[in-house]
Specification:
With 276 residues, the chain is of the alpha+beta class. Helices cover 22% and strands 39% of the residues. The protein has one domain. β1 and β2 form a beta hairpin. It holds the Pfam family MbnP.
Length: 276
Amino acid sequence: MKIYRFLSLFFIAFIAITFASCQHDDISGEVQGGGSGSIQLKFENGFNNLGGIVLNQTVQTSLQGQKHKFSTLQYIISNISLIDASGNEFKFNENNPDKGAFIIDQADAIAGVIYLNLDGIPQGNYTKVKFGLGIKQNAYILGQDGQSIFWNKAKQKGMTWGWAAGYVFAKLEGKYGTGSPSTEFKNHTGNMGNVTANNTPDLCREITLNLPTTARVIGQMRPSIHILADLNQFLSGNTPITLTGTNDMMMGSGQHLVNVTNNLAKMFKVDHVHNE
């Protein structure tokens, strides 16, 4: 009887330890084998890290006291990478705009958010996300035939010049003023074709963001990474900008638009990660 009781207690203890171990594995999110899954990137455009820009309505005042609002707010995201805790990097369709480039258009926002769904992501625990603002030269010089699908999408969105000039990387339009925003502005940034051959600035920028919480691509779990873009950086970034009659209708890669690009490259941050 004592032996039977001892074996019963031992069996109960064994089950408890095994159950606790399984729970621990589940919580830690360790990758079991290979396979792939999905990740969702959510872009939310706002001012001062507060989301919810409404085109033609939301007004912001710059550090210089100038008011502005957007009627058009678009930019291109490409060459997305995910980096794990060991520094391993997964590149999502690198230099392949047809499959790996996206247009963030505020007009398409759903409750203020634009959603990008990425499939074929290797299972893993990711701690950083990296992406390009614009299209890299390595992709552009592949020619129009190598990216005709995305080129046509961009053309429909008004995010291209002629092929000799290439893509519009960021398209900011609206009104500005001192008392109220009443004067029209259009600032379109982008490379002027082959920047080496044309001796023009390369306005494509690479952004790397740390994730506040590990994004776990495990089994059926599809994490979402919520990225805030602070458009206050447009005029109030590292290089303060005042819109005037000399720069309010500029397109291309002149010095004013280099300053705009450098400011916009600092506007992103990851607000939070959902693992679900």
